[in-house]
Amino acid sequence: MQKKLVPDYIRNLQVYQAGKPIDEVAREKGLTKISKLASNENPLGPSPFAIKEMTQGLWELHRYPDMHAHKLKSTLASLYKLKLENIILGNGSEGIMGYIARAFLGPGDEVLTSEKTFIGFYILARSSGAKLVRVPLTSEYKYDVEAIAKSIHENTKVIYIANPNNPTGTYITKKEFDHLMSFVPDHVLVILDEAYFEFSQNEDDYPDSMDYRYDNVITLRTFSKAYGLSGVRVGYGFAHEDLIANLSKVKLPFEPNLIGQLGAVGAVNDSPHLARTIMNNTARYNKLKSYLTKKNFKPIKSVTNFICFKTGSAEASDYMFNELLNHGVIIRPLKSNEMPDYVRVSLGTNEEMDHYYEAMEKILPEYDKKFGRPS
Ligand SMILES: Cc1ncc(COP(=O)(O)O)c(C=O)c1O
Question: Is residue 107's pLDDT more than 70?
Answer without folding.
Answer: yes
